[in-house]
Structure formats: structure tokens, C-alpha cells
Write a structure and sequence with these properties.
Urease, subunit C, domain 1, TIM Barrel, 4-stranded parallel sheet
Length: 478
């Protein structure tokens, strides 16, 4: 018999009538990895009781877009720099140099660092679409998180030889090989770690995959019953490239080749028809809504560069299923919720839209819908015990009236007291239990120093770190 645990709560975001509701006081009961009861009281026998009467208990966040093997090394490198020529996308200018400069141990250091960062900032389920899935699966299993893992693949890559134009180098056979390996990886990884690990498909970008590769991916997603990710409408140059190739927007082309489905989790979808940066007519949102495709909205990676979805409430109104992701650094879902609400309001020039409830639902129930998991993103009988415990008596959470508004507009990672996945604590009283925090910090620092030194080798112009990313202030002269 699994151990039965009773949690006495200050407040619970409990699932009732198909939506989140606020339950004052409240008791949550777990049996092993599963929530078996939520309600005002509970009179049955239990093996253990947890006193969380000074805490807010919420479902964990589902982070639908990450690159765990790279993102931590965006920090201190990609901020405050960008090229007008590429409409402020770093994809063709800076990314190739960074990727070339990262050694295998640097990628692993990023993955291990990410485990700590994700747990501390509220992610309990993560979707990772990089290229070292085996290592990620091992790290996830050790850390105790829940994960959907893909080994990304593509038929070509971007580069620039002059800093003016984006060009594509194609290797279609490598794309097909990558696809076959990605399918085999799903079969091998699916169900690992007590079912916490599952696989999905991630052809990498709309402009770097052939039509054949995308069609094969769509068929495999359907027959295997797995999510299908793709970066699309993520830069102005990509949008213009697709218009040049097909006379269609990227989304229109995906519809034409039969790629769109309810299994889609499309990364970004920022530069669509109707966005002010593309200045192009069409109704991409209606197409997405028609096919039930979901969007992984990663507000920060764009907002940091002065770019934004236009707008979160408009996509919602069109019927697009919006999920949230962190993409770059910081890999904090707390920040993702806050910035999605704020930028959503700024772009709509309205206050009463992109509300705390909208973004909290996006980070939980909307993502669970895309994953077809009615046991995730909610506190309800039968759901997995993936639970966050927030301090209620903190500076940021007081005064307490509307817990979700306090959480979205005020909370920090310091308010997150315990994190539980599958009924097991990964963090308790602010201490990570499955990751050695100092070790992952030290390894990431060393990885960064190695990478910064090697940046000129992979850069089209051989630029140094100081040229690629000038320091904020000059060093003090001794
Ligand atoms: Zn991405």
C-alpha cells in the first residue's frame, strides 16, 4: 500500500467544475504519487501529516519550451546586443558561435544547472527539445522532475558569411537520419522513471526542415500519439524567407503541407501575418485555432530584445491554446507568468486582459490539454501530486486577498518553500534535495569561461566575447 499523506493548507488552488478555484483552508490527501482528495476537510486515516497552514498550495507549472543544454549560457552574453540587420534576432548572428564554442561538458553542466533552476522557480513538468536527450533523461531521473524529452533534428542550418544575409546549408539525409533516431529515442525513453519521462518529436525550425521531413514528423506524431514541436514565426528573417520560398506565411505553409494538428506545440509564433514587424496581411491565428494547434509562448526571450507577441489576448480571443515556456535564461516560470501578463497588457493597451488567471491557466491547464494529460496541471483527485508550496506570510505575499494575483505580480522564487513531483519532495524548506546546488553553479561558471574564450573560433567574423557582447562598464583601472 502506498503511503497516505494529509496536507493541511492555508489556501489551495483546487480544480473544480473544469477550472481552478480558491479553497480557503482545505486539505489535500496523497497516496503515493497521486492526489486522492481535495476539499475543506478529511476524516480518514493517514500515515503522515504535513502542516502547510501558512502556505498556498498550487499545481506545479508545465514549462513547454526549453533548451536545457544551452540556455544557462545565454546569461551575461546575449543581453543588450542585437543587429538591426536581422531584426534583432540572435539566431543567425550570435547563436552559431555560441553553439560551436560549447563543449560536451558545458552542455551537461547546463542541463544539471537547469534542474536546480527549474525546481527553484516552479517548473514540475518540462519539455526539452535539444540534442542530448540521453543525458537529459538521466539528469531528470536523478532530479525527480517530470519531463517530455525530444532529440531535435533538422535538414539544414542558418549561417551568415557577411553579417548581412542569412543563408542556409542543407543536408537532407542528416535530417532524415535525425528523425529516425528521434523516433527510436522516444521508444527507448518513454515511461522511464516511473512514467515521469516521456518522449516527443521536435523537428527544429520551419525554415530548416524540408517538407518531407515535416510530413514524416506529423505522421509519426499521430501514429505514436506524441506532441510535435516546431519553432515557427520566431524571427522576421524566417518569415520573409518562407514568403520568398512559397508565397505563404510560415503558418499558411504548415497548413498547406498538412503539418498542423492538436498535437502541435509551436514555439513562439510571434512574427505572423498582422504583426507590425511583418506588415503582411493574412489570418494565421484563425488557421491555428482551426487545427487546434498550441503555442509555446516564451515572452522573455523576445521582450528582452524589444520584441513582442501582438498580442496574448488577441491570440486567446482567436481561440489559440496558449501555453508558456522559458526558452532562454532565466528558466523561471514565475518570471514567465509575470512578463506574459505585463507584456500582454502593454501590447493590447488594456489593463483588464492577460490577467493573472489567464497566465496561471496557460501555465497549467492549457499545457495539460495540449499534452492530453488530465492528470497534470491541477489539484484534483486522480491527478499526479506535482505540487508547489508558497509562503503566504512573506513580504511579497502580504496582504493576502487574491493569492494568484500576489503570485503573478509579486512573488519571487524565495516565496517557493517546497516543491513536490510525484508525491516526492524535490525541494523542502528552500533546500534542494536532489541536486547539489553549489556543484552545478561551479560547473556552469567553468563552462562559461571555456565557452567565452572559444567564441571567435565559430563566429563568422572571428569576433571575441568583448566584440560580440561588450561589457556593461569598463573595468576599473588599478
Ligand atoms: Zn526554442
Amino acid at each position: 500500500m502506498a503511503k497516505r499523506v494529509r496536507i493541511d493548507c492555508g489556501q489551495v488552488i483546487a480544480f473544480q467544475g473544469g477550472e481552478h478555484r480558491v479553497l480557503d483552508g482545505g486539505v489535500v490527501v496523497l497516496e503515493g504519487e497521486t492526489i486522492v482528495h481535495v476539499g475543506p476537510s478529511f476524516s480518514g486515516e493517514v500515515d503522515e501529516a504535513i502542516d502547510a497552514r501558512d502556505m498556498l498550495v498550487t499545481p506545479g507549472f508545465i514549462n513547454t519550451h526549453t533548451h536545457l543544454a544551452e540556455s544557462p549560457l545565454d546569461k551575461s552574453l546575449v543581453e543588450d546586443v542585437g543587429k538591426r540587420q536581422f531584426y534583432y534576432s540572435g539566431l543567425a548572428d550570435m547563436l552559431p558561435a555560441r553553439s560551436a564554442a560549447m563543449d560536451e561538458d558545458a552542455r551537461r553542466a547546463c542541463v544539471d544547472f537547469s534542474m536546480a533552476e527549474l525546481i527553484r522557480t516552479g517548473t514540475t513538468t518540462v519539455m526539452e527539445m535539444g540534442g542530448i536527450g540521453d543525458y537529459v533523461a538521466d539528469a531528470v531521473e536523478r532530479a525527480g522532475l517530470r519531463a517530455y524529452i525530444a532529440n531535435g533534428y533538422r535538414s539544414g542550418r542558418w549561417f551568415t558569411r557577411d553579417g548581412k544575409k542569412v543563408e542556409y546549408a542543407w543536408d537532407e539525409e542528416a535530417g532524415l537520419r535525425g528523425f529516425r533516431e528521434a523516433v527510436a529515442f522516444i521508444e527507448q525513453v518513454d515511461g522511464r522513471a516511473n512514467g515521469r519521462i516521456k518522449g516527443f518529436l521536435s523537428p527544429m525550425q520551419v525554415d530548416t526542415c524540408t517538407e518531407e521531413l515535416l510530413r514524416l514528423s506529423r505522421q509519426a506524431s499521430e501514429s505514436m500519439g506524441v506532441p510535435l514541436a516546431l519553432h515557427v514565426s520566431q524571427s522576421v528573417f524566417e518569415f520573409q524567407e518562407m514568403v520568398r520560398r512559397h508565397g505563404l506565411t510560415p503558418i499558411e505553409w504548415l497548413e498547406q503541407i498538412g503539418f498542423l494538428s492538436e498535437w502541435n506545440i509551436l514555439g513562439h509564433v510571434i512574427f505572423i501575418a498582422g504583426n507590425s514587424w511583418t506588415n503582411f496581411t493574412g489570418d494565421d491565428l484563425a488557421i491555428l485555432a482551426r487545427h487546434g494547434a498550441s503555442v509555446a509562448h516564451c515572452v522573455w526571450v523576445f521582450a528582452r530584445r524589444g520584441l513582442a507577441m501582438e498580442s496574448f489576448p488577441r491570440y486567446q480571443a482567436a481561440g489559440v491554446n496558449l501555453c508558456l515556456g522559458t526558452d532562454t535564461c532565466p528558466q523561471s516560470m514565475i518570471e514567465a507568468l509575470r512578463w506574459t501578463a505585463v507584456i500582454g497588457k502593454v501590447m493590447a493597451r488594456q489593463t483588464e486582459v492577460a490577467t493573472a488567471g489567464d497566465v496561471f491557466t496557460a501555465a497549467t491547464l492549457n499545457a495539460a490539454r495540449m499534452l492530453r494529460r488530465d492528470d497534470l496541471g491541477r489539484i484534483a483527485p486522480g491527478a499526479k501530486a506535482d505540487v508547489l508550496f508558497w509562503r503566504l506570510r512573506s513580504l511579497t505575499m502580504t496582504p493576502l486577498r487574491d493569492p494568484i494575483r500576489n503570485l503573478v505580480y509579486n512573488a519571487t522564487a524565495n516565496d517557493l518553500q517546497h516543491v513536490m513531483v510525484d508525491g516526492r519532495f524535490l525541494m523542502r524548506d528552500g533546500q534542494l534535495l536532489t541536486v547539489d546546488e553549489q556543484t552545478v553553479i561551479d560547473r556552469l561558471q567553468e563552462a562559461g569561461e571555456r565557452m567565452w574564450a572559444r567564441l571567435p573560433e565559430g563566429d563568422w567574423a572571428g569576433r571575441s566575447i568583448e566584440e560580440l557582447s561588450p561589457p556593461t562598464y569598463r573595468p576599473y583601472q588599478a
